[in-house]
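Entry type: protein chain
Record version: 2
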Amino acid sequence: MAATEDDQFWDLVDAFIEQANNACEAADPGMVSAALLNAAARFNAFVVASASLDRKEYIDEIESAQKYLTGRYAELVRDHLDDYRDNYKTYIRADDPEDE
């Protein structure tokens, strides 16, 4: 990604996280997480479908798109879980004793 595209990408990420954080004021964080995951899945299905020339091409692309998207999600969630593990005291609770 070019610098401006990279900036735009991270601005979008931050905006989605801010909206999710605000939603947690009125809803359980687990529900917000599930809604955000569902919205991402729905939007990704739309992107794949709208990028297809026709229904047949879309049907042919479903399996590869699903493999790509779920693989990418697995990589991202692992990276973020590791980040929170490594920075738990900074991100969540500074006074929590380390379990080592």
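Comment: The chain has four helices and no strands.
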